[in-house]
Amino acid sequence: DGGITQSPKYLFRKEGQNVTLSCEQNLNHDAMYWYRQDPGQGLRLIYYSQIVNDFQKGDIAEGYSVSREKKESFPLTVTSAQKNPTAFYLCATKRMRDTDNEQFFGPGTRLTVL
Amino acid sequence: DAKTTQPTSMDCAEGRAANLPCNHSTISGNEYVYWYRQIHSQGPQYIIHGLKNNETNEMASLIITEDRKSSTLILPHATLRDTAVYYCIVRRGGGTSYGKLTFGQGTILTVHP
To answer: Please, which residues bridge with residue A104 across strands?
Structure first.
């Protein structure tokens, strides 16, 4: 069935290590997004991509990198340059053809850096 | 995108209507009002959106005031599973918009038996 897959649900890493979070979708949506959520806070946009091989920085891109080699996939790498990487990471997708429509969110990955 | 103001928390009895207010006094003519909710430790879920007319779907109703400076999300018969954080978001529409959603802290709705 259609949807957005983020794996794993929980991820632990040692400080100083890069880690890549997976986001896969089979909704055939053009746009994909990465958000970060800290406890008790709303979501903040990290990166977004409207088409394959193109992406733009969001509000808090420092310490993160992305790639969009396929329409279905938008992996996020949390680098050692990210000062406070422990957070809940959410991937979202959206159609771009319609005049206005909603974003669909994945189940999220909770990253803990020890 | 316009800023929104929501109460921090609200309570509602199961089976009753939950009315969640949102102020967006700086909204501009081409900005839509969106509502999402987030159940604990899950991704946000789209509920409804509108521009200036009232909207209804299987989940909720959205009432937008005539001056569009505020709106109310109505869950007609709240259940325990409706306990969540509800986000009111205002953003530009249009197919060329990259669709950025600016989430505030939202309203924590607690539905009790």
So the answer is: A93
Q: Does A39 touch chain B (CB under 8 A)?
A: no
CA-based nearest distance A105→chain B, Å: 5
Phi–psi pair at A75, nearest 5 degrees: -75, 145
How far is it, in rounded angstroms, from Cα B30 to Cα A89?
30
- Record the tokens describing residue A96, joined without a space: 């771009």
Cα→Cα distances A86→B41, B97, B102, Å = 14, 30, 21
How far apart, in whole angstroms, are the C-alpha atoms of residue B69 and residue A114? 45
Chain B residue with Cα closest to A33: B100
- Which residue in A9, A33, A100 has the most chain B C-beta atoms within 10 A of its own C-beta, making it the best mutation to test that interface? A100
Q: B21: helix, coil or strand?
A: strand
User: CA angle A82-B40-A112, nearest 5°?
Assistant: 30
Whether the link from the prior residue into A8 is cis, omega within 30° of 0, is yes
Residue range A39-82, pLDDT digits in tens? 888 899 999 998 999 999 999 999 999 999 999 999 999 998 88
User: CA angle at residue A112 from B83 to A76, to 5 degrees?
Assistant: 90
